[in-house]
Amino acid sequence: MKKPQPLSKPGFRDAGEAGQKIGANNRPHNTKPRTKTHTILTALQRGSLNRFEAERIGDHALNSTVSALRKKGHNISSEWETVPTRFGKPTRLKRYRIESIDHERRGH
After folding, report:
1. Of the four listed, 44, 53, 54, 63, which is most buried by Cβ atoms within 10 Å?
2. How far is 23 from 17, CA to CA, in rounded Å?
3. H/E/C letters for each residue in 61-74?
């Protein structure tokens, strides 16, 4: 009795109509993984972010990531806020947001 042949290589699955091979990480082989910097930039483009929120999406050093984005030319502002820790005690931390050009021209 002949052993049935797998539909694709072990560890891979077909991407449907596109025909791209998808690896175990669910990403086409010809694409790079999203970097932490890209993930944070995308989150900032959608709204503001503090370090506790950034930790939930994989960044445990938000201040360093923001510094790197600023060096690349992104205009990111910050303001202090007080939020509860996981133990319920208040702590101060910075909330970061990308400033739009129109916002800067108005002097805000």
Report:
1. 54
2. 16
3. CHHHHHHHHHHCCC
80-98: pLDDT as tens digits: 999 999 999 999 999 999 9
Cα radius of gyration rounded to whole Å, the chain? 21
Q: At what angle do helices 62-71 and 36-46 cross, to 10 degrees?
A: 90
* Token pair in block for residue 34: 């999203």
What's the pLDDT band for 8 if we cut at 50, 70, 90? very low
Q: Which residues contact 63 (CB under 8 A, 6 or more apart)?
A: 51, 94
Cα(59)–Cα(63) distance, integer angstroms:
10
